[in-house]
What does this fold into?
Amino acid sequence: MGTWLVSAILALGLLLRLFHFWAITGTAFPKIGFVLTQSDMYAFFQWAQTILAGDWLGRETYHPFFEWMKRIAPLETWFEWWGGKEIFQQAPLYPYLLAGLWALCRGSVTGVLLVQLLIGAVQPLIMYRLASRLFEPRVGLVAAGLTALYGPFIFH
It folds into this structure.
């Protein structure tokens, strides 16, 4: 019975994410990361473009330098706070994933968004396995169900 419930929870999570994708596809939301140039979304897309342009090893470490950052301190001070110019100020895994998805989807923002939502549909399974291992299968089912329904996991 547990396998059937986990499958149903995964299907529900996938259905909700596909509905969310359908609801936002015709809106400005998928392009917001290109318009809000002072956002992390914009910075991640810029970093992904740097990677796709050939800087796979981060020889020119990408560092966003937003207006709010300029009001706090000059760039050299930020480099000092980050531990040096060569240090990533954020973990680089997501920009590399984004660059790969961008190449796979041939520059389609909606394609990248759809793939990310499909990857996110696996979250309930991960939570089920983790909670079942740490506690018991019933706790895993509850964790999977909450993960499938949790709005921020769907929205982001």
In short: Residues 2-54+92-155 form one domain.
